[in-house]
Fold this protein.
Amino acid sequence: MSLLLVINRAPYDGTDVVWNALRLAATALESAMRVRLFLMNEGVDLARSGLPCGGPDFDLQAMLRDLMEKGASVRLCKTCLNRCGIGRGEVIPQAQVAGMKDLVAWIRDSDKVLSF
């Protein structure tokens, strides 16, 4: 079973939306699901190098890195990166830059798709 999470929200926007998406991804990985995350809109900020963490118990980028170490795939919307002014070398190296065709391929190949 495969799960695709599309994260649109900024990492620290005053809500727990991104935190809950990452918690869900971690639980899915623990349940032996294939997990993929596509970050778009302000969600690309989650992969920005040097993102300030929200505190010792709420470091969203550390959660993302942990997911990748455990096998989750992460792609970043190239257009969104450009729109947000994020260039090459400004994102964590494990994340791949991708486009809409890549997202469509992931959607087609996923059993479940959720958007946050």
